[in-house]
Amino acid sequence: MKKYNILLFLIVLSATSVFAGEGVPPSKVVVTPVKKELVAENKPFIGFIYYQQTSRLSTEVSGLVEKVEVREGDHVKKDHPLVRLNTEILDKEIELNSILVEQNTLRLNQSEKQYKRLKKLYGEKGVSEREYEDALYSYQDHLMEKQTAEKALQKLLLEKRKSIITAPYDCVIMEKNVDSGDWVQQGKQLLRIGSTSELHVKVPVAETLLQYTTIGDKVPVTINAYNQELTGTMEDFDPIADKKTKNIFLIIQIPYQDKVAENMSVTVSIPTAKPKELSIIPRDALIQFQGKDFVYTVKDNKASILPINIVAYLGDSVGADNPYFVVGMPVVVEGNERLRPDQDVVVAGEK
């Protein structure tokens, strides 16, 4: 606190000498009153993005790859074709087996008529038992031949369906290990995909911090690559701690984002203490000087600069534990970037 007071004194002294007697006109500002809330202190931790639901797609049939419909990074919907195998020979076999099914159907219909006719005659003692049994056998044989041909055709049709590998769910293509013209065998991994229904973040924290986290808690998350702020939900923690550090990986769900990659870094604000009453101040009120955070308040129609000790990050706001912040104190949220200490100000509005 002493360091802050000394720094504040130097700032005020310097600014006063600059503005004294220069007749600088009052600056219009917009203010927001300070609020008090029960909030847990938190600190930023670096984590990484990962897809919780992933699949390694393989082929169930061997064949020549005719076309790969996707590239790495593509987002596709469920049932969208991903890889097509050549089915030229298979189509001929399907055509041939379709003809065999038709032939067996004709034979079956003929033997069925013969069987029914002899069955009637046999009941009237018009044919021998042997003739009747031969007709029954012929009918049953043709029935099984037709069933066999139908099963063979169904197998070929299934094989053709399996020659088109589709997305099992809405996903992003994470890895592609196949190209057109490749010969692939059963079980060969062609693609790795991740579900786009949701994204997850893993954050390593000391095991002692678990006492301050609760499943379902909302936590601020920033995707560092874009400086994009999101709200994550504490979902679980990894059941295996690091052997050396004893750190635990917290698992946090975040809304799905298009332009992200697995293992991208994020910053997550994790509670590090039990909740206590803090002063809630909008982030728009923050200014920096020599790497330190400050806010402007208005006192006697003049800008007064105050250091702020941030102990919690709360999305668009921060929590501070400085004792001089009281409920209702105005802090400048618009126009603060051009202010100087002790500069005359006019409050143009309140947010």
Give me the Rg, rounded.
Answer: 38 Å
| First-residue to last-residue Cα separation | 30 Å
Instruction: Give the number of domains.
Output: 4
Derived from helix and strand composition plus strand pairing, the structural class reads alpha+beta
CATH architecture of the largest domain: Beta Barrel
Give, in order, the helices and strands.
Answer: HEEEEEEEHHEEEEEEEEEEEEEEEEE
Biggest sheet strand order reads 3-12-15-14-13-16
| Helicity, as a percent range | 25-40%
Summarize the structure.
With 351 residues, this protein is an alpha+beta fold. The protein has three helices and 24 strands.
What would you say this structure looks like, in words?
It is built from three helices and 24 strands. The protein is an alpha+beta fold and 351 residues long. It folds into four domains: 2-41 and 275-350, Beta Barrel (conserved putative lor/sdh protein from methanococcus maripaludis s2 fold); 45-52 and 198-268, Beta Barrel (Elongation Factor Tu (Ef-tu), domain 3), CATH 2.40.30; 55-86 and 166-193, OB fold (Dihydrolipoamide Acetyltransferase, E2P); 87-162, Orthogonal Bundle (Helix Hairpins), CATH 1.10.287.470. The longest helix has 36 residues, at 88-123. The protein is rod-shaped.
Note the topology.
Blueprint: H1 2-19, E1 27-33, E2 35-39, E3 42-50, E4 54-58, E5 63-68, E6 75-76, E7 81-85, H2 88-123, H3 129-162, E8 164-166, E9 171-176, E10 183-184, E11 189-195, E12 199-205, E13 218-223, E14 228-237, E15 248-254, E16 265-271, E17 276-282, E18 287-289, E19 292-299, E20 302-307, E21 310-314, E22 317-320, E23 330-334, E24 345-350
Parallel strand pairs: 1-24
Antiparallel strand pairs: 1-23, 2-17, 3-12, 3-16, 4-11, 5-7, 5-10, 6-9, 7-8, 9-11, 12-15, 13-14, 13-16, 14-15, 17-22, 18-19, 19-20, 21-22
Helix pairs in contact: 2-3
